[in-house]
Specification:
about 110 residues; alpha/beta; Oxidized Rhodanese, domain 1; five-stranded parallel β-sheet; about 30% helix; about 15% strand; globular
Amino acid sequence: MLVKEIDAQELKARIDAGDDIALLDIRSDAEVAQGILPHSEHLAMHLIPLRMHDLPKDRDVVLYCRSGARSYHACNFLGQQGISNVLNLRGGIIAWARQGYDIVAPRTQRAGVM
């Protein structure tokens, strides 16, 4: 199964261009408390099988973790379930931060997935 990936520069360019992308942080609660990508939602990795049917079907969904490894496996799993609009952020939030892009405090109230 081929996992589609996006790098931090391409993701930032798509966000800046106004592309309608869902961003999902699949890290643990403790990791998320340290900061997230702007406009992203938190969905812990272990909840993906339970919530995968809530993912948007009409736009790209970018999954990310700390380094890109967990989100790669999550994208692979979702692809095996027939969900083809997911992309892995190569290098995770580390790659995003290395480019000097914003990391923000997570919202205290979450309305759910996307």
